[in-house]
Amino acid sequence: MAQETLVLSLSSAEQAELARKVRATELELRPVEHAHFSVRGEGVTATLYRSGKLVVQGAGAALFVERYLARGAGEGRRAPAAARPALAAERLGRTLVGGDESGKGDYFGPLVVAAVRIEPGDAEKLVAGGVMDSKQVGDTTALRLAAALRTRFPVALRVLDPPEYSRRQAQHGNVALLLAEVYREVVAEIATPGCAVLIDQFSNSKDRLLRALRGLDIELFQEHKAERAAAVAAASLVARAEFLIRLRELSEEVGLALPKGAGPPVLKAGRELVQLHGPAILERVAKMHFKTTEKLIHR
Question: Which of 46, 49, 48, 51 is closest to 5 using CA atoms?
Fold first, then answer.
């Protein structure tokens, strides 16, 4: 996603409102000279200077302005999310199952695939309730929203803990084929006859998922950035929340905080883990086919 820098001039009322909203979130507050505050998180760094100038930098700059100031990055106000052009699956006006996954790019922890079923009219309610792509919210918010979603909407969930993930990934030799198989499991669980299914496109080949879902009485749609649709955003929140819970449980089990992702903090934690428990522990907590495994075992 392209990086973006936005500069806005805020009224006193807007400054006060922004300060109130960001302090109620998990955004990291940092002191900056000549500024009321600077915050980091949700894909941006935002600094509010004492002059009233707000500088927002990062891939999520426009979304930050829309969420915390209720106006667009340019002149006038941006249309609310519910009023943006709907994806093809949403325009059908039918029951819709949205699907997304979490943990695919994380070395530690499981792969989680979720599906959420909504009815016509539910999308607007979800947006009004703050449901958005899980990458745009903090962990606490994702956990809170996911808990609410699971009490109000039909949800299907599959959690492949690292040992099962490694076994099934080795069988397929391809993560996309494994994902397609697991998506069939969750869609088949909650789909109703003739409903639409919208899944965030995870492979260059749409045929993988088409073949996997063949025989189900559904109409399948695959879109890049499908989290724009409320049903998929809901699934992304449910999947991420379950991933966070399982990663925390694994961390408690091994006595070491296991970080998300696959970067330097993961390598550091992995080395500590191997020192504590030996190389075999990786099979319990990690996706073994990642190149990270070789770096940890064959240093």
Answer: 46
The whole-model pTM stands at 0.73
Residue 278 gets the label, from left (phi > 0), alpha (psi -120 to 50) or beta, of: left
Q: Which CATH class is domain 88-247?
A: alpha beta
Sheet holding 5-9, edge to edge: 5-9, 53-57, 44-49, 35-41, 28-30
Check whether domain 5-78 has CATH 3.40.50.720, yes or no: no
The domain segmentation of the chain, as residue ranges, is: 5-78, 88-247, 250-297
Q: How far apart are the first and last CA of the chain?
A: 33
The amino acid occupying position 265 is: P
List per-residue pLDDT tens for the chain, 299 residues long: 455 778 787 777 788 888 888 888 778 888 888 888 888 887 788 898 888 888 888 777 777 887 787 554 443 333 333 345 678 898 898 999 999 999 999 999 999 999 999 999 899 888 888 888 888 788 888 899 999 999 999 999 999 999 999 999 999 988 999 999 999 999 999 999 999 999 988 888 889 999 999 999 999 999 988 988 999 999 999 999 999 999 999 999 999 999 998 888 999 999 999 999 999 999 999 999 999 999 998 75
Best CA proximity match to 145, nearest among 180, 121, 120, 114: 114
